[in-house]
Specification:
The protein is 86% helix and 0% strand. The protein is mainly alpha-helical and 197 residues long. The chain folds into 2 domains: 79 residues, no CATH class; 112 residues.
């Protein structure tokens, strides 16, 4: 690891400290590299001798936490927040791929089946409601034309039953569809949150 890479990583891990404190620490470690160079060591050897920038930052956060209590932040929490961007990107890509595969193989077929059932119920409700309405109007028209009252009224009564059943199915479909939509949106939000973490 070169001097610039080492100091850049150290700066990234120290970002929760005050700027003046960061600059002081970075100047000290820049001096370590100068001294190593004067003694004939390469940047890689000096970096290895100094240790991991993350561990160095952890030490500073721990010292700071012990010297000045901070109720909401610990050394580990500060370092977690300072995780390198490339690690977060890689993790997000992996989570996206895993969730994508899981959603495609398992969730999408189930979602499509549930949506199909809801649409089928909606179609049945519409069909029964309009079919019942047609039976009612046919019964009333037959009664007006002078047809036998019992058969005309029985057709109209059957139509009312079909229309009522259709309306009940439409109401249940509306409730089920609303619940399905809310559940789908919650699951989508969970996926987005999982990828962002």
């Amino acid at each position: 690891m070169t001097r610039e890479e080492y100091l850049q990583q150290l700066r990234k891990f120290l970002q929760r400290l005050p700027v003046a404190e960061q600059e002081e620490i970075l100047a000290d470690y820049e001096e370590h590299f100068r001294m190593g160079e004067a003694e004939g060591r390469s940047d890689t050897e000096t970096a290895a001798a100094l240790g991991s920038p993350m561990e160095i930052a952890r030490g500073f956060y721990t010292q700071r936490a012990q010297g000045q209590p901070q109720p909401t932040a610990s050394a580990d929490a500060a370092l977690d927040d300072a995780e390198p961007d490339e690690n977060r990107v890689v993790r997000s890509i992996l989570v996206l791929l895993m969730l994508g595969f899981f959603n495609l193989v398992l969730i999408l077929p189930l979602w499509l089946a549930a949506a199909g059932v809801i649409l089928g119920l909606f179609g049945a409700g519409i069909g029964l409601t309009f079919g019942g309405g047609a039976a009612i109007s046919t019964g009333v028209a037959a009664l007006l034309r002078g047809m036998e009252a019992s058969s005309a009224l029985s057709g109209a009564a059957a139509g009312m039953g079909l229309a009522a059943l259709g309306l009940i199915i439409l109401l249940l479909t509306f409730i089920l569809g609303r619940w399905f939509l809310e559940l789908s949106l919650r699951y989508l939000r969970w996926n987005i949150d999982a990828i962002r973490r």
